[in-house]
Amino acid sequence: MLPFLAYALAFLFVPAGEVIVGAFKNAHGHATTEHIRQIVHQPYRQQYWLSIKVSLITAGLGCLFGLAIAYAAIREGTPRVVRTVVTTFSGVAANFAGIPLAFAWIATLGTIGIVTKFIHDHLGYDIYGHGFTIFGERGVELVYLYFQIPLMILVIAPAIDGLRREWREAASNLGANSWQYWRHVGIPVLMPSFLGAFILLFGNSFSAYATAYGLAANGIALIPITIGFYYSGNVLSDPHLAQALAFGMFAVLAVMMLIYVPLQRRSARWMR
Amino acid sequence: MAYLELNELRRSFGPVVALNGINVSLDQGEFLSLLGPSGCGKTTALRLVAGFDRPDSGSIVVDGKDMTRVSPNRRDMGMVFQAYSLFPNMTAEQNVEFGLRIRKNKRGARRKRVKELLELVGLEHAVKRYPHQLSGGMQQRVALARALAIEPRVLLLDEPLSALDAKVRVQLREEIRRIQTQLGITTLYVTHDQEEALSVSDHVAVMWSGRIEQMGTPSEMYSAPATPFVAEFIGTMNRLQSVVVDGERGEVEHAGTRLTVDAARGRTRGEKVMVLVRPELLVLEPSANGAAGDNTLAGEVVTHTFLGSVTRLKVQSREAELISDVATARVASLPVGQPVVAHVPNEGTRLLTLTEEPASFELDPDNP
After folding, report:
1. Are B89 and A164 a contacting pair at CB < 8 A?
2. CA neighbor of B56 nearest in space, from B66, B72, B64, B45
3. Cβ(B30)–Cβ(B192) below 8 Å
4. 8 Å CB contact of B74 and A164
5. Which of A191, B139, B286, B294 is deepest in the core (most CB within 10 A)?
6. How many of the other CB atoms lie within 10 Å of CB of B333?
7. Spans of chain B below 70 pLDDT
8. pTM attached to this predicted model
9. What is the DSSP letter of A269?
């Protein structure tokens, strides 16, 4: 317990405290609420909304696709090798992020990416000419899904494993069809894990920086990118505003937790 | 016409033949146990009846209707599984109510039925508890109530007591029988525990290697086993490999000792047979000189196993190891190392023709 507490203190509480305290200071070290007032107005309000939107979309789609793939790979009757391949790939893909991932997608679906060129040359369709761009919001969402879906697969797989064959058979024996089984048993049993996974994916996406930066540094105004600019920018350097923006991210995550906790408690009341 | 009929059911999994053409015929309200060691095909048979699996060939008929290709949710069969089959997200009453909700029964009627069933299984005090808040025995009672709630045509029980401790097992099996008799539900019960099968069933079918070796009433199965396997599996049996020497007088020879056995009368001289004697029929007497008299085998007591009112003695004879159940009060006169003679009774001793070497099989470790 002690090593964990030391770890949490050094890498969570002290940095978080530093951010919170810094958010209420000006450049001269005096207390102020100026930065906090700033971040609730434009352009930051719009940036928060965009970050939340991207996170909700990628967490939602990641959860749905991840659940479907994990179930298909784990369900009874699927060859064992499929499960091995899917979980191994997921283990790699869930950790493949940042600049290398951004580059891989630019090389694939960038303006002269191999897939873009292939579609253009062989199918006669110019995806960029029809409004698609990997460097905008949709592109970032697409790239985030690359690690969000595998992460969901890894997180939800044990819960799917926990669905006992006897429950499905008992439900069927009592007259339930497949949908009725899922509605009354499968989904409620998976729900606590699903909600937990959703929060994890939301946080994962909300705090992602390097991937979006590598992909569309100037093309998309996500909060982590703006924080990066204020921390390290030569012209726009304002560390306390960056800390205030980070404080705002804490607040968003706290609101998410306030929504999540009662939902989770409700869905998991049968476990207590 | 029988209520439940299994006709020539066959099922293979790759090269493994799990069911090799079984036939069962059961009247309405009867209780049949499928009994056998692990891997004998009994659970496969039950799953085919439930509809969780399809037979390669053969048919399942219930009340004159062919159910072989009917999906499990349309068969109206209640099933109790080995363990952990209660829906974990539902309370005891919600579990019992599930089948009625699926059938869209009215709320009032549902509640009434659930209450009745939970009272029937003695769990009226635990209706609001979730499965993890119930003991193993209570969970199985709820599972039984849930299976009964839909008023099934056939009740299927797949080793429902195997995960419970011995005392609860005995108590619950009696309750299952009481409820089954009270409701008059045709029941198919799978178990590897012969005591369980014999104590609750109208009929027992002993299965081995995908076949039904013998089917009959518990008393028939115990007193008149038809094959060496059944003889060995149901209860404990002394097996004496012998040869008929005089069919007219009913004499056989076992390792040089002549025994007169009623069951050997009319047999052909030279016929290889197995003489089967239950331990409670083999009477032991102390012997001063170890000499055997008429219809006796000489030996020496090697072990005592206390079983309560009787003690099981193992006797090493020259030819075989014998087992005899002796009243515990008498055991003092038969200590370990005591030379004894074992009287093989004329009557009550069974005889099987040996066409091949007796079958070998492994008993379940928890049912030795």
Report:
1. no
2. B45
3. no
4. no
5. B139
6. 12
7. 289-293, 355-368
8. 0.81
9. G
Q: Based on the structure, what is the number of domains in chain B?
A: 2
> A266 to chain B: nearest residue by CA?
B89
Beta carbons within 8 Å of B237's beta carbon, 6+ residues apart: B225, B231, B276, B277, B278, B279
Q: Where are the domains of chain A?
A: 40-271
Does A84 touch chain B if contact means CB atoms closer than 8 Å? no
Do residues B4 and B186 lie in contact, with contact meaning Cβ atoms separated by under 8 Å? yes
- Enclosing domain of residue B226: 4-230
Question: How close does chain B come to A82, measured CA to CA in Å?
Answer: 21
In this structure, the answer to whether residues B270 and B171 fall within a common structural domain is no
| Same domain assignment for residues B142 and B291 | no
**Which ipTM value was assigned to this complex?**
0.81
pLDDT in tens, A178-222: 999 999 999 999 999 999 999 999 999 998 888 888 887 777 888
What is the reported pLDDT for B367? 35
State the SS3 of chain B.
Answer: CCCEEEEEEEEEECCEEEEEEEEEEECCCCEEEEECCCCCCHHHHHHHHHCCCCCCEEEEEECCEECCCCCHHHCCEEEECCCCCCCCCCCHHHHHHHHHHHCCCCHHHHHHHHHHHHHHCCCHHHCCCCHHHCCHHHHHHHHHHHHHHCCCCEEEEECCCCCCCHHHHHHHHHHHHHHHHHHCCEEEEEECCHHHHHHHCCEEEEEECCEEEEEECHHHHHHCCCCHHHHHHCCCCEEEEEEEEECCCCEEEECCEEEECHHHCCCCCCCEEEEEECHHHCEEEECCCCCCCCCEEEEEEEEEEECCCEEEEEEEECCCEEEEEEEHHHHHHCCCCCEEEEECCCCCCEEEECCCCCCCCCCCCCCC
Chain A segment 125-184 residues within 8 A of B by beta carbon are 164, 166-167, 169-177, 180, 184
Residue A119 is predicted with a pLDDT of: 92
Residues B223 and B282 in one domain: no
B168 with B138, same domain: the answer is yes
Counted across chains A and B, CB pairs separated by less than 8 A come out at 77
Share of chain B above pLDDT 90, in %: 59
Q: How many CB atoms lie under 10 A from the CB of residue B74?
A: 12
Query: In the CATH scheme, what is the code of domain A40-271?
Result: 1.10.3720.10
In this structure, are B241 and B225 located in the same domain? no
- Judged by a CB distance cut-off of 8 A, whether residue B98 touches chain A is yes
Distance of residue B259 Cα from the nearest chain A Cα, in angstroms: 54
Please check whether residues B160 and B129 belong to one and the same domain.
yes
